[in-house]
Each structure stands twice: as structure tokens, then as C-alpha cells.
């Protein structure tokens, strides 16, 4: 929680911790942005893990991606696989207006001691406030925060 609190203070945007659960990811903790224009999903919100930045940040680091890729429409599969490679290289995912109109989300994976991905840490907010420069700045903070959480889990 202290890591999430610091990320929330540093970004001013909504911060969420999502855990991988079967074919879904579930929000287990969320700190809503204090700004009047903001997005929040709520603790307990469940979404297909193939969707959004927080889901792709998980899938990109799973050893058994094929069963998940089978659910991606064939016309999108090649682009999806390219995106997963980029996420593995950069260490984080970005989605733009994918699940909520006007929202930008960034997420980085959370690992356990076995280097098994168990979830993701996400920051999201409105596209009117988060441009490319902010995506870069927030993603750097997000990578540090997710590494801290992973270290606390033994990774």
C-alpha cells in the first residue's frame, strides 16, 4: 500500500492493483484520483485479461499465452502478438480509449518469488490530461513501483 500511495501522490491519477484470476484480472485495491475528471473501476471489478493495459501487462509475461491468444479475434492476433513483444521489451503496457472512452491506462506486471507474473499495477486517467510526455513520465514511475512491489513478494 505505501508504494501505491506514493505513486498516487506522484501522478495525481487513479492507481490500481489487479490480480490475475483464470481468464480475468480483478481489481484488489484502487486509489481513485482526487481530480474532478477521473476514471475508476472499483475494487472487485473483473475484466477479461486479454483486454486493456493491465491485462496485457499480465499476459505478456505468462508462459502459456497460446490459450489466451486463441480468444483474440484472428484479424487482430498478429498486432496483439507484436504488442505483447513490445510490452516484454519495455516492461509496461499502454491502452488508449480501449475500455473507457477518453481514458489512457498504463500498467506494469507484478511478479512473485518464482518470477511468475501474478498481476499488474496500473495508472489511468483522462486523455485530455495524459499525453505522450505524461505517458513516458508515469510509465517510469510505474516501472519503479511495480519493481518495489515485486521485490516485497520475493521477486
Mean pLDDT: 94
Residues in helix, %: 25-40%
Q: Give the low-pLDDT segments.
A: none
Strand arrangement across the biggest beta sheet: 3-2-1-6-5-4
N- and C-termini, Cα separation: 17 Å
Question: What can you tell me about this protein's structure?
Answer:
The structure is a single chain. 39% of the residues lie in helices and 27% in strands. It is of the alpha+beta class and 155 residues long. Strand 4 (93-96) and strand 5 form a beta hairpin. Helix 1 (2-11) packs antiparallel against helix 5.
Write a concise synopsis of the structure shown.
The chain is an alpha+beta fold. It has five helices and six strands; from the N terminus they run αβββαααβββα.
Q: Which terms summarize this structure?
A:
6 strands, 5 helices, 155 residues, 39% helix, six-stranded antiparallel beta sheet, alpha+beta
Topology:
Layout: H1 2-11, E1 14-21, E2 24-31, E3 46-48, H2 52-59, H3 66-69, H4 74-90, E4 93-96, E5 103-111, E6 117-126, H5 132-152
Antiparallel strand pairs: 1-2, 1-6, 2-3, 4-5, 5-6
Helix pairs in contact: 1-5
Amino acid at each position: 500500500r505505501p508504494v501505491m500511495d506514493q505513486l498516487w501522490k506522484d501522478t495525481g491519477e487513479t492507481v490500481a492493483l489487479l490480480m490475475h484470476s483464470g481468464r480475468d484480472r480483478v481489481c484488489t485495491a484502487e486509489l481513485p484520483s482526487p481530480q474532478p475528471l477521473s476514471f475508476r473501476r472499483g475494487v472487485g471489478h473483473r475484466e477479461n485479461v486479454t483486454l486493456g493495459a493491465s491485462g496485457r501487462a499480465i499476459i505478456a509475461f505468462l508462459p502459456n499465452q497460446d490459450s489466451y491468444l486463441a480468444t483474440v479475434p484472428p484479424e487482430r492476433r498478429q498486432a496483439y502478438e507484436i504488442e505483447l513483444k513490445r510490452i516484454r521489451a519495455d516492461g509496461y503496457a499502454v491502452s488508449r480509449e480501449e475500455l473507457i472512452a477518453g481514458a489512457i491506462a498504463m500498467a506494469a506486471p507484478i511478479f512473485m518469488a518464482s518470477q511468475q507474473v501474478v498481476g499488474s499495477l496500473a495508472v489511468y486517467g483522462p486523455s485530455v490530461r495524459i499525453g505522450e510526455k505524461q505517458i513516458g513520465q508515469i510509465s517510469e514511475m510505474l516501472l519503479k513501483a511495480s519493481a518495489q512491489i515485486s521485490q516485497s513478494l520475493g521477486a
